[in-house]
Amino acid sequence: MTMKSTGITRPVDELGRIVLPIELRRIYGINIKDPIEIYTEDDKIILKKFQRKCIFCGSPDDIILFKDKAICPGCLEKLKNLED
Q1: By C-alpha distance, which of 9, 26, 27 is closest to 18?
Q2: What is the dihedral of CA 66, 72, 78, 82, to 10 degrees?
Q3: pTM higher than 0.85
Q4: I want to staple 39 with a disulfide (CB 3.0 to 4.6 A). Which of 4, 20, 46, 80 is the partner?
């Protein structure tokens, strides 16, 4: 991953919040109320749009929630076949 400077700066408010510029929200498909994951690496804070992934294979496609666990259709089929 190569980091690019946007040249944009934002102040941190009294509650520790920053505003993500609309241009970046549009580019990365971030909408109001979307969850954002926060990572750290060395001296960096990394923000990433949260995407549910299958707890078994990591696929983000067609996720089904079962008791708050994310499962893809392929792994769900495999689990069903274990019952046989």
Answers
A1: 9
A2: -10
A3: no
A4: 46
